[in-house]
Structure formats: structure tokens, C-alpha cells
Amino acid sequence: MATAVQKIILSSSRDIPFNKLVLSQSNVRRVKAGVSIEELAEDIARRGLLQGLNVRAVVDADGVETGMYEIPAGGRRYRALELLVKRKRLARTAPVPCIVREGGIAEEDSLAENVQRAPLHPLDQFRAFLALRGKGQSEEEIAA
Length: 144
Known about the structure:
This protein is an alpha/beta fold. It has a single domain, classed as Conserved hypothetical protein from pyrococcus furiosus pfu- 392566-001, ParB domain, CATH 3.90.1530.30. It has five helices and five strands; from the N terminus they run E-E-H-E-E-H-E-H-H-H. It has helices spanning about 35-45, 75-85, 105-115, 120-135, 140-144; strands spanning about 10-15, 20-25, 55-60, 65-75, 95-100. The protein has a five-stranded mixed beta sheet. It starts with 11 loop residues before the first strand and ends with a helix. The relative contact order is 0.21. The model has no long low-confidence stretch (mean pLDDT about 90).
């Protein structure tokens, strides 16, 4: 007898105002390494947010949603957006693309988002730089 394949259900996505988002203590990233928040903020200002935040509804002691959302995965992106808000380059109520998760363990989402990421191979990176140069971008634009 054939076993039925269980279909997956993806989490919904929606825009949530920046001022309704808070960092979660469930984010597993503690060590600051790699691209600085300043550099990430400048990239977001120039290019826009390329990857949404992973959020979960904040609930009160009775389990009722408060209207706020915590971010277990995407803390660096949130901090970069926060810097843009502080510098008045982004409105406090600007809509932020978010994946709204329910159930499961927040730390597991944070860990998976960080571990499943694969760095770009240096040859692919070189080819991408070469393609941008071929499309007329300067070395300074590519470096940015």
C-alpha cells in the first residue's frame, strides 16, 4: 500500500510596520562577525530589503496577541533598519516584509536560517563582479 506524501504548508508573509517589531531573545546569533550593521544599512538604503524578517506574534500572559512581533531570525537586518530609522532615512511606520511563523521553536528557526545559508563560491562571486562591470558599473559601485 502506498503511503500518502504529506504536503507542506508555507508560512504566510505580510508587511508589518517597523514600530511593531522587536528583537527576540531566541535569536541564536550572539557574536558580531561579517558585514557591519552600518554597511548593511547602507546596502538596504541603496538596494532595498532583499530578504524579509522571520517573526512570531508576541502574546501576553493569557496567550492573546499584543499586536507586536518578535524577530528570532533577521536581527542584523532589523538593526540595520533601526539605524535607518534613527537617521530619519526610513519612517518608523514603514512596512517591513516579514514571514509570520506559528508553532515550532523560535531558536530552531534562527539556527536554520543561519546554518542553511551557503556562501557564494569565489569563482561565482568573480563572475558576478565581471558581469556588473560589463553592464557599466564602476569599481566603486560594485564595491558598494
